[in-house]
Amino acid sequence: MKETGRSTPGYAPGMTTRGLVFDLDGTLVDTLGTIAAALNHGLGVLGLPTHPDRAVATMVGEGVRVLCRKALPDARRDDEALLERLLVETRAFYDANVLLGARPYDGVEAMLRSLVDRGARLAVLSNKPDPLTVATMEGLGWSGLFEVVLGHREEFPRKPDPTSVRWILDRIGLAPAETLYVGDTPIDMRTARAASIPSIAVTWGFRGRAELEAERPDHLVDRAEEIVRLAEGSPR
User: Which CATH class is domain 2-30+103-231?
Assistant: First the structure.
């Protein structure tokens, strides 16, 4: 977890949202190639079948352990010893290649800077292990835009449990009603709902529109700049 201690400028007139909590993978940054490369490296080392990137996209969102379990052949999914070996290989590759192929989604950096300029308080919450979450943000040069960057830590249950979101809001002094939660998977929408935070589902990430619509997000957006308008309370 990283806290920047950045000072928040005066809040812009007309803004109806004081803060936003963002998922990371599939929401701010396209890391699918990084995740797939790490997972397939681990599978290859163990002599197991690998997966195309789009198949890996359907497995992410619940942390690396769940990802690795889903990637195992059906007949071996309950083999805990094999799962542990795959976790070790996958994590080692990811640790050494945090930004391999990673790229911000179109318009995301401009959107983040626009929100900060308007006085919004920003945080990142990911089910990716905390050191990798922090390393990703630092590698992109974005840490200074966020007041809290939090990945999975043992003291917090993983999303969609709302404990970590509530901790973030308490840390930066926000109420759920004045916050937006932005993500790209059903897990993110369930997290927002569990924490009573209005949700924004983005369609450019790891899940399709129909899967997101089934979760009934408060807002569904196709472009990053729409998030700024929603934070301002403007119509789409």
Answer: alpha beta
Q: Which of 23, 25, 30, 184 is catalytic?
A: 23
| Residue 43 CB burial class (10 angstroms; 0-12, 13-18, ≥19) | buried
Structure tokens at 73: 């052949």
Burial 87-106 (b: 16+ CB within 10 A, else e): bebbbebbeeebeeebebbe
28-67 pLDDT, tens digit each: 999 999 999 999 999 999 999 999 999 999 998 888 999 9
- What sign does the dihedral 95-208-141-125 (CA atoms) show? negative
Residue labelled with tokens 């990811």: 94
* Tokens read off for 131: 């050191």
Kindly report the backbone phi and psi dihedral angles of residue 223, in degrees, each rounded to the nearest multiple of 5, phi listed first. -135, 145
Summarize pLDDT for 206-222 with one digit per residue, the tens.
Answer: 999 999 999 999 999 99
- CB 71 within 8 Å of CB 56: yes
CATH code for the structural domain at 32-96: 1.10.150
Domain ranges across the chain: 2-30+103-231, 32-96
3-state SS assignment for residue 219:
strand
Give the global pTM. 0.87
Q: Are 200 and 171 in contact (CB under 8 A)?
A: no
Has 23 been annotated as catalytic? yes
